From TrEMBL, chain A:
Domain of life: Bacteria
Name of the protein in question: HAD-IIIC family phosphatase
Organism: Streptomyces fragilis
Gene3D superfamilies linked to this entry: 3.40.630.30, HAD superfamily/HAD-like
SUPFAM superfamilies, A to Z: Acyl-CoA N-acyltransferases (Nat), HAD-like
From TrEMBL, chain B:
A Pfam family reported for this protein in Swiss-Prot or TrEMBL: PP-binding
Ranges of residues in domain Carrier: 1-77
InterPro entries with a match to the protein in the record: ACP-like_sf, PP-bd_ACP
SUPFAM superfamilies reported in the protein's UniProt record: ACP-like
Protein name: Acyl carrier protein
Coiled coil: none
Amino acid sequence: MTTDDTVEAKPARTVKCVVWDLDHTLWQGVLLEDGDVPLRPGVREVIEELDRRGILQSVASRNDGEAATRALERHALLDYFLYPQINWNAKSSSVREIAAALNLGLDAFAFVDDDPFERGEVAHEIPELLVLDAAEATGLPQRTEFTPRFVTDDSAKRRAMYRADQVRGEVEREYTGPKEEFLATLDMTFTIAPAAEEDLRRAEELTVRTNQLNTTGYTYSYEELDAFRKSPDHELLVARLTDRYGPYGTIGLVLIERGSDTWEIKLLLMSCRVMSRGVGGVLITYLRQRAKDAGVRLVAEFVPNGRNRMMFVTYKFSQFRETGRDGNLVRLEADLTEVPPFPAYMKVSVPAGTGGDR
Amino acid sequence: MADTKQTIRDFLAQFFGDHQLADDEDIFATGFVNSLFVMQLVLFVENEFSMTIADEDLEMANFRTVSAIEALVARKHTTVVS
């Protein structure tokens, strides 16, 4: 169980995004000299396989933007790459751009280039990056760093979800009105449902991948989650979000332990991808309403990990007060006198008969 | 401390658009908490006024209005000086 982000506790590296060079790496030859550049053998298969595993991909190439984009289109590969950086800047700065756009840490990135100079520059500027020679490209799927612990339905859709994020981001930047009005234009539907068996892989994956929007950092195995799902003393809920640009997939998870007079929130987490959507408080509001209807106390645990302060603030502003500390662990209890309605800028769908008709 | 209030109003303007917040107007009128907004608000106060907000001060009451935020800032700065 990992509840903090110290170096010692760091799990084995898993690459979440691969950044490809183009000339002599993705394809043979130099585009601006040779014009017609066939793909290097095996590269297409690698790109398709990484995509299936939910590993994102991008491009950092010193090239002419238009010519390179056309060449990628000809090879029917353009769609695989998010935020491609085709310019004359240092490749380290291109990699940083991609990481910032995707909101992922640089230690989750790999960079593939045939040129030792470029590899050296990037490795020097970003030491935490995994830097690989193009000669190793076809072996990527065999490496452990490129073998995620989980390949779920959401994995194969991850690229499409990030692509939709890219469109949302562009629309959001152009929108100048108040934030809540913008959120209202998204037509969001937030669905809370009991976890089904087919949700468990993704639920397990969420407990492992989510640091920032995670109240306790407790991780549970598939089997443990399945037991909670069937236990009469527990409730395991998943949350999904969709908007006009498409589904975000399963982005939230809650585990409650239900005693006769007290319900305890053991775990409450949200994917970072929905951080800007203002949905963090929805699950908490829902739980407060449920507890109020059931006439029970609602308590929660919080374990700080240096990155999850947002969840503590959300609890505190949602009328939870501190009732005690146990080492690192903070105990909180909710005041259920007044439970606010769900935000007007989204539709919230909850399990039948559990306080959603407000 | 008119400047403090203006700084706070300028920050809030990006969330409330053209709506001019009065000093005692409830920022959380609906009662619903948007996690990202409250975090941005807390970080803004900490960075802008060079202070750390302790866990016990992370209460909606301290952030509910422009005046309340100003009072929190003033209280913290007094504590540091004395």
